[in-house]
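Reviewer 2 asked us to include a model.

Predict the structure of this chain.
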Amino acid sequence: MPESLDELGGPTSGGVTLPRHIDWGPHYVYDLADEADLRLMYERVIREAQMRDGLNAYLHATSLRQVWHDLFLPLPVRAAWEARFPELLESGTTTAAA
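Predicted model (C-alpha cells):
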C-alpha cells in the first residue's frame, strides 16, 4: 500500500494498458473517461500490483476517492485499505461493494 493517498498520481484521462504482471488477461486498453473501465482498472491494480510503484503509477488519489465505494474488492483488501486510509470511508458514493 502507499504511505499516503497523495502518492497516487496515476493518469486521469486517456487510455491505459496495464503491464502483464498486473493485468494478465487479454490485452486491454482501459478508457479512463468510461467509469466502468476506470473501476475495473482500479480493481485490478489494487488486487494485483505487488509493488507500491504499480499503485502509484496507475491509481490517482482523487479518482480513487470518487470510485472507492463502487469497487468490487475482496473484504480483507477493502478492510486493509480502509484501516490505513479512513478518508476512503467518507468519500465517493454512499453505496458499498464488497
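The CA atoms of residues 66 and 92 lie 4 Å apart. The helical segments are 35-48, 52-58, 61-67, 75-84, 87-90. We have added this to the supplementary material.
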